[in-house]
Amino acid sequence: MGLTTYYTPTRVTFGPGAEDQVAERLKAEGAEKVLVHYGSARIERSGFLAGILSRLDEAGIAHVELSGVVPNPRLSLVRKGIEVCRREGVDFILAIGGGSVIDSSKAIGYGAAYEGDVWDFYSRKAVPQKTVPVGCILTMAAAGSEMSDSSVITNDESGEKRGCNSYVCRLRFALMDPTLTCTLPPYQTGCAVVDIMMHTIERYFTGGQSMHFTDQMAYALLRSVMEAGLKALKTPDDYQARATIMWASSLSHNGLMAVGNDTRGDWACHQIEHELSGMFDVAHGAGLAVVFPAWLKYNISDASERIAALGYNVFGVKRTRSEKEDARTTIAAVEKFFRRMGMPTRLTKLLGVRITDQTIDTLADNCTFHGQRTVGLMNPLDGEAIKLIYRLAR
Amino acid sequence: MGLTTYYTPTRVTFGPGAEDQVAERLKAEGAEKVLVHYGSARIERSGFLAGILSRLDEAGIAHVELSGVVPNPRLSLVRKGIEVCRREGVDFILAIGGGSVIDSSKAIGYGAAYEGDVWDFYSRKAVPQKTVPVGCILTMAAAGSEMSDSSVITNDESGEKRGCNSYVCRLRFALMDPTLTCTLPPYQTGCAVVDIMMHTIERYFTGGQSMHFTDQMAYALLRSVMEAGLKALKTPDDYQARATIMWASSLSHNGLMAVGNDTRGDWACHQIEHELSGMFDVAHGAGLAVVFPAWLKYNISDASERIAALGYNVFGVKRTRSEKEDARTTIAAVEKFFRRMGMPTRLTKLLGVRITDQTIDTLADNCTFHGQRTVGLMNPLDGEAIKLIYRLAR
Fold first, then answer.
1. Tens digit of pLDDT for each residue in B1-13?
2. Which end of chain B has a smaller Cβ tally under 10 Å, C or N?
């Protein structure tokens, strides 16, 4: 078995009203000039932002705002944020939002503490050594960025969507109030649940052996978030459901679900999906709902045991004499659940149009960095394999 | 629902050979003069200690050793450690061992960074503000001290066993190699499994509502560690079993099992047990195996729903029409499992002698700080209730 590093130094405050601690936490971090970074008009409209800013004012914490983050957050706004940080002498970044805002904040933090171009970290020309510290008020739970070491940015000049993983960017604090997510629309709730599930599932399909205990924790997380997802669609303000989704978003992506496993997971589905949302600007969760079933179909012969185990422990699949048959039943159950969550499971449904073989070639070529890499660890995929998966997903 | 703070900044390295990173981690912490603190002759005899010390020497890290930690670690040795730290200018404490060694190290860390008497923190006259930083190589998994905010010390002048909880003492790193625990004798393995279970169960019996997702994670942890415990008794060097026990020890006591719950748990059983191990120097896990069933019996009317749910989800209890009946079945299943793990479930068995009513009065009086406090949050217990529980346990 391999060595795991598990390091989650983010101070979490979880529960209704967690955001009320914002000034106290910023003070504890010694923040004097804060960049308040957020996305949606929802934050402004509801008076929520004004409430937070007045807390900062009362505490004598200077601040400057930068809004406009969109899903699949853009490099251009990151660059703008870095400029603001330098010009204003920002010493702390407060993200108010979900994964896009936090990922954007992490990128701004890296860039503001770096002489060169921030895209270096995403194109793997450089490795982050330091950052302007970041904290968040989570208003949308899905990406798990509040506790993860990951940031994914879309380069709006080239259309590339690239991730950067580093312990450097672990948030200093995360204020997590599940009641703030009760107004999330059903489609976004569906996307969130799929994204959360996939952060655990990518780690479950480890490139090697897994720790049995970690498998059991993964099964418990998956069952819980699936049940909560269906409940949240039916009763959007169900506190237990929203709390489960929010906390599962963190635990799914903070590294817990890979402890003791031989690797930190497969991650092919994420790479294959990133090309879709990079090119078509679709929601990441919806893209994953399309890619994962196709990936499972591609891998059914090599991974039937692991797929079937997922079925037995999470999707209520009954054991028959054929493991491969059970794996097939599991794949059908996965698709059925995604559809119950209002998610597409085919590319044509996701995009509203059937994509051409030529587009698939381009997607696969981008995904392999033009033939320079394979994706996935459990079963490394080259360009031809990736094309096949896009076709299975079509 | 209440607010939870979840803060686990300890950098964990988990897997075979984790201890090989000791010099690298100490360097990363800037340690220049290390107190190497350990307990048993086992560490010296096996050549393990020599191997670690030579790694420190190779890396040019100065060190001084302090051995002699015993279960229910003593204040007198803590005082000695503080003296050593001051005299030698120690700037980092490396604990090699299990909960006793780590708890002792935390106490030394507090005391060495404090002008007054270290016992102030345990008698609640003072609250720790800083510490000499601590890291560990875990060689015994049970107490979960490697990730917890807790330290429990026995005052060998007064016989009192008292705990101090503070975020200040979270370890900087924990090197966790499950293979180091394969030689643990069966009785200690039994004590470990009970201790681990109880850290989750104390939090499960919250003083208020619980988060359903946290309940599910608790059930998964309990089922996993019970299965692993039985496997480790049968096959002491089963890697998966030892890995599960080790990682469960951390997750059970780092706060994860109380996230979203109204309180951080009940903890009456721990307080009632501390008096036993303080007075009779019995193993903490064995003491808990005696106290918990009695505590359950005392609470069966008030908590039958929660007890029965534990039965359904962890102990394989079949649901009947009577929840109270199912709670009773659960208590029997708990006792049966503890006995399978080689644990006593009665005081007389634990101590080898039937204790008198007078002794019970003394234990209960100590436990309430001579009538100055109740213990437990789910159902606060006064001296009379505690006496009854000791009698039920007899």
1. 789 999 999 999 9
2. C
Residue-range domain boundaries for chain B: 11-181, 186-393
pLDDT of A179 > 80? The answer is yes
Q: Does domain B186-393 have CATH number 1.10.533.10?
A: no
pLDDT digits (tens, 9 = 90+) for B290-322: 999 999 999 999 999 999 999 999 999 999 999
Q: Which own/partner pairs from B366-372 qualify as long-range (CB within 8 Å, at least 24 positions apart)?
A: B366/B160, B366/B275, B366/B278, B366/B279, B367/B271, B367/B272, B367/B274, B367/B275
Q: Concatenated DSSP letters for A74-134?
A: BHHHHHHHHHHHHHHT--EEEEEESHHHHHHHHHHHHHHT-SS-THHHHTTSS-------E
Q: What residues in A contact B243, CB-CB < 8 Å?
A: 1, 211, 213, 260
Structural fold of domain B11-181: Rossmann fold (3.40.50)
Which residues, other chains included, contact B202 with Cβ-Cβ below 8 Å and sequence gap of 6+? B265, B266, B267, B269, B270
- Mutation pick from B3, B180, B221, B230 vs chain A, by most beta carbons of A within 10 Å, is B3
Determine, for residues A240 and B6 on separate chains, whether the beta-carbon distance falls below 8 Å.
Answer: no
d(CA A166, CA A156): 23
Instruction: State the ipTM, two decimals.
Output: 0.95
**CB-CB: which of A1, A14, A220 is closest to B217?**
A220
Phi, psi of B4 (to 5 degrees): -110, 135
The minimum CA-CA distance between A25 and chain B, rounded to whole Å, is 12
pLDDT at B137: 98
Looking at beta carbons, which residues of chain B come within 8 Å of A25? none
CB contact under 8 A, B217 and A221: yes
**Stronger pLDDT, A322 or B158, i.e. the higher one:** A322
C-alpha span between A254 and A270 (Å, rounded) = 16
